[in-house]
Amino acid sequence: MADVGKLTRRGFLIGTSGALLAFAAACSSDGDGGSASAGTGATIGNKYGETQVPLDPQRVVSVGYNDQDALLALGSTPVGVFDWYGNYPNAVWPWAQGLLAGATPAIIGSANTGIDVEKVAATGPDLIVGTYSGLTKDQYNKLSALAPTVAQPKEFADYGVPWQDQTRIIGEALGKQDKAKELVASVEKQFTDVAAANPAFAGKTVIVGALKGPGQFGVYGPEDPKVRFFTELGFVNPPVTQQITTTNFAPISTEQLSLADADLLVWYAGGGYGDKLRAELDKTPVYQELNVVKDGRTIILEDEAAEAMTWSTVLSLPYALEKIPPRIAPLLTK
C-alpha cells in the first residue's frame, strides 16, 4: 500500500488515545496483577503448528503488519518491527508513539520488500510474533530457526485475526494474559457504548470496498478489520458478500458493482486514493444506478480515522470510534 501523508491532527489523535495509552502504561508496571510469570512458557497454536514460547521474553520482534501496537499496549517494546505504511518513525503511528519511550526498534521489513530474515536475526530475538500477517510456511520455518515464532492463527484467514484475538494471543506469548484481558474489555466497552448511542446501526447491511486499479474495484471480506469495525457496531454483512469474496479482499468486475446495494456502502481510500476513486466512480454508470448511491448512503473514508480503522488495534480503534460513527449516522436517517 502506498504511504499516506502525516496526520493533520497528530496532537489531537495522540490526545484522544491518551487514556488508553495511560492505561496500557499503568498495566506495564511491575506491580500489575498480570505478573510476568503468569502463563509464561505456554504452547500457542498457529497456522503451521504449535510454538512453545519462552519464559519472560525480552527481545521481541514484530513481523506482523500491526503487531507492534499490541506489544506496546502490553508493555513490551519490540526490538524490531515491520513497516506496513505511513512513513512514521520506527514504523509506529502517533496513537502508539508515546509508548516507545524513546526506543528505536529496527525495521526488519516492509510491505514493499517483505520480511528480511537477516535483519530479524541481527536483532537477536528471543520471540517473534506475526499474528496479523500472511506468513508462508517457508518464512515461518526460517523465522522459527531464529526464535520461537507465533504466526497467524489457523482459525482465521491471513491478515484476518480480530484485534481481540491478536491482543490475547500476544498477551499469552508475553505472559500477560490479565493485561490483555483488561485492554480488550476497555475497547469493547467503547464499541458497546457507541453502538448503544446509535441504535440505527443495528441490523443494517454494510459493504466495504476500495479501488483496485483503473476501472476495477474490490470488496473486503467479512474477516477484514475494516468490515469488522462496522459489524462490531451492529452492522451485518449481506449474504451477497459471500458471493463476491471469501478472502480478505477480492477484485470485482464493474458489473458486480450491482451486487453492492447495501444499506451502507463504505469506500476505503487511504494512501491518497480518494480523488482517483471518485473519478472512477463518477464515470461508472452501473454504480450511479445503485439505490444506495441515489439515496446518499455512501461514504469515502480517506483520512487519519480511516487509517486508525484499518490498523484496527487495541491502540488505534479508540480514535476511529470517536471519528467515524458520527459521519455515518446521518446517512442512515436519509
UniProtKB/TrEMBL annotation:
<dbReference type="Pfam" id="PF01497">
    <property type="entry name" value="Peripla_BP_2"/>
</dbReference>
<dbReference type="InterPro" id="IPR006311">
    <property type="entry name" value="TAT_signal"/>
</dbReference>
<dbReference type="GO" id="GO:1901678">
    <property type="term" value="P:iron coordination entity transport"/>
</dbReference>
<keyword id="KW-0732">Signal</keyword>
<keyword id="KW-0813">Transport</keyword>
<comment type="similarity">
    <text>Belongs to the bacterial solute-binding protein 8 family.</text>
</comment>
<dbReference type="GO" id="GO:0030288">
    <property type="term" value="C:outer membrane-bounded periplasmic space"/>
</dbReference>
<dbReference type="InterPro" id="IPR051313">
    <property type="entry name" value="Bact_iron-sidero_bind"/>
</dbReference>
<dbReference type="InterPro" id="IPR002491">
    <property type="entry name" value="ABC_transptr_periplasmic_BD"/>
</dbReference>
<feature type="domain" description="Fe/B12 periplasmic-binding">
    <location>
        <begin position="59"/>
        <end position="332"/>
    </location>
</feature>
<protein>
    <submittedName>
        <fullName>Iron complex transport system substrate-binding protein</fullName>
    </submittedName>
</protein>
